[in-house]
Design goal:
The chain is built from seven helices and 14 strands. The protein has one domain: Leucine-rich repeat, LRR (right-handed beta-alpha superhelix).
Length: 291
């Protein structure tokens, strides 16, 4: 980019608060420096195609951007994210759909310190649950909304006790969890909705109205935890939740019905009891996900 055109681009971008930028670059550093210098920019969605890694230095105290929402669609290494976010001390929302754990060394992981960051959306392609625990403890931010997807098979990702402990100890501000964990179909014919595979039914999850679901496609079983209001808005979609209650009787079912009505969890539902397994089936109502 010649000097004249670069000045023109800067002048045009300085007048906007939100800009989607997509560019094919040999050196992305120059464009990032340009973006971070914009005095009114609040949100940036950035995609670039380059064989070069980002090589910006860590920001100094005088190099702080006004950006509050940053979406990085082609950045997937922790060191690059640390570098870029060092320029965005006001950052509130960080989105990295390609992940952030490529070439990560969990033993020497540097912390992310963003005091205003409340929203994180990302995926993990390489970390198991224990490594993810170490990772999340390196984020010193009051996260309120976490969207996260895992592509490494580790049964601890669908262990409610592991998640409950992590949330209570390291994500104390969390208000909404959107979790997707993928597994290839098991070789056995075990029921997907067995008590063993569906443990997200303790008061911890019910009080937060975070629901557990299982979806299947050709090759994978997708285990999903998300707030009730974020569920698919199809009026024809029926969900099934099954859990085991030892010594369940008719009184247990009546108490469960009263709890559902009192908390306004759902209206169009049926409850069935077969021995000590309780099945709740409900039709999802149309909702709009505002997040």
């Amino acid at each position: 980019m010649d000097r004249t055109k670069r000045k023109l681009t800067f002048a045009e971008l300085s007048a906007v608060k939100t800009k989607k930028l997509q560019s094919k670059l040999n050196d992305p550093d120059n464009l990032f420096q340009l973006i971070f210098a914009l005095s009114q920019l609040k949100s940036c969605r950035f995609t670039y195609f380059s064989e070069r890694d980002i090589a910006l230095p860590i920001a100094t105290r005088k190099q702080h951007s006004t950006i509050e929402t940053l979406a990085l669609y082609t950045v997937d290494t922790w060191n690059e994210i640390l570098t870029l976010t060092s320029y965005t001390s006001n950052l509130r929302r960080l989105i990295t759909p390609c992940g952030m754990d490529r070439d990560i060394d969990i033993e020497t992981l540097l912390p992310l310190r963003l005091s205003n960051l409340t929203y994180l959306r990302t995926c993990f392609n390489y970390l198991n649950f224990h490594e993810f625990e170490i990772f999340i403890k390196k984020i010193y931010s009051p996260l309120k909304i976490l969207h996260v997807e895992f592509l490494v098979e580790d049964v601890n990702f669908r262990d409610s006790d592991c998640w409950e402990n992590l949330i209570l100890t390291s994500l104390s501000h969390l208000e909404e969890l959107y979790l997707i964990y993928k597994e290839r179909f098991p070789p056995s014919d075990d029921l997907i909705f067995s008590g063993k595979l569906n443990p997200f039914s303790s008061p911890f999850w019910i009080d937060r109205r975070w629901f557990f679901e299982v979806e299947t496609d050709i090759n994978f079983v997708n285990y999903i935890v998300r707030p009730y209001r974020s569920c698919n808005n199809s009026t024809n979609l029926v969900r099934l939740l099954c859990f085991r209650i030892p010594a369940a009787d008719d009184g247990t079912i009546e108490k469960l019905k009263r709890t559902i009505i009192t908390n306004g969890i759902t209206c169009d539902y049926t409850i069935k009891r077969i021995v000590d397994r309780v099945y709740i089936e409900w039709k999802l109502e149309p909702t709009i996900d505002s997040s």
